[in-house]
């Protein structure tokens, strides 16, 4: 019996796709527009003509602003994004976002918490109303915080060991402030109260600690978004300067590999030294360029042939300080020798 494999008119499909509408020309003169509003909110915009608009609202509410007696609030704040607000339940928020094809995510670092919206131009206004509701009207209901405990446990369980090493590195370098962990301690899970979260949000989610950026629309739109936020008045967000102390921390983990983070004091963000150190971190090495390829970086050459290992340079800069170093994953029996060689390489790079 004859095969019907070629019965489908596959050539016709190709021809049909050939008549698709051409993409609009990309704007050549792209400039970032920025301004500071009277309420001290910073706004910036880049109108690149994209059909997808991205809006990020950032607050100075990172882990360095946590009170020493109540650590972990920033992690809970990120995890609680999208829970019930004064105007809508978490189910309604999720359903409305799904109906218009939009997404909202929360992320953060040691200085900032970011709420990011991605949506199409046609549904921008409806999505912005939902984003405003998520950011401005959080309630942190106690039973919802209890229901959020499994998510916090999953966040900790899913952490790669390299991230844990860098987190401990900050603790060893700064003690407090920038030394505060990005993640809540396991013993603190379920212990954060609704009152603590409301107080922390009331102190940190304020206009003077806020920045609004938009990609795919104008600066006027960014300013309108910032003005529509219903935020309480508060402080200017100045944090106590974090002093670099240096030090060493260890955490016993199972397995055949040791994960080591080494660093020296870096430079604050925005300084020429910070830019130079960022380039130096890439020059140190970031693993093979191709899969199964050889790593010929200076860091790899300094480590030598010890079996399976991974090494990469990194540079992190904050408003008043920074760290420059390397992260290693090496056989545990070789960790001491490799750490010494890597430290020598860091010192030679900084000279």
Automatic annotation (TrEMBL):
It is found in: Mitochondrion. GO terms for cellular component: membrane; mitochondrion. Keywords: Mitochondrion, Transit peptide. Its main location: mitochondrion. Residues 192-335 form the Peptidase M16 C-terminal domain. Residues 47-183 form the Peptidase M16 N-terminal domain. Pfam families: Peptidase_M16, Peptidase_M16_C. PANTHER family: CYTOCHROME B-C1 COMPLEX SUBUNIT 2, MITOCHONDRIAL, METALLOPROTEASE. This is Ubiquinol-cytochrome c reductase core protein II. It comes from Manduca sexta. The lineage of its organism: Eukaryota, Metazoa, Ecdysozoa, Arthropoda, Hexapoda.
